[in-house]
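pasting for ref
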Amino acid sequence: MKKTTNIMIVGVGGQGTLLASKTLGKLLVAEGYDVKVSEVHGMSQRGGSVVTYVRFGEKVYAPIIDKGEADFIVSFEKLEAARWLEYLKPEGQLITNLQETDPMPVITGAMKYPENLIEKMEALGVKIDAIDALALAEEAGTSKAVNLVLMGRLSKYFDMSEEAWMAAIEACVPAKFLELNKKAFALGRA
């Protein structure tokens, strides 16, 4: 029996976390898995924290991932990676964008953005794959393609064909944005 794999996609509102989870869900269903996707919105329209749970396996009964159960956390922003870290399994993999998006307490001057977050998480023994997804998205043609860059990076950890990923992207991304999103995916995968 195949074990259930748990993936959390975390970010702030407006970064494209929902398109990433929709694309991932579409891929996994096409690959024959039972899939549960649960979106938890914070103050997404105000740049608040957003998390999506994606669980897949032979049979998945519940959509929510508890603390210490995530095999993967895909983070669109470093502080969100740190915020959700307790959900990662001890042997789990964190994939994070190096981007920093100031939360409201930083914007108002009440707090400073934490320094050396990647180093602090590595010091805890976390396996981190940190990339400048924003730079790669801009290289692909738009800063809005960070989500597909991160999906490209996540794809390296799964034994699913690039063709299957492309089919999922084609099913989820509007035609006029398809080529640059495919390019963003390829840059993240590379």
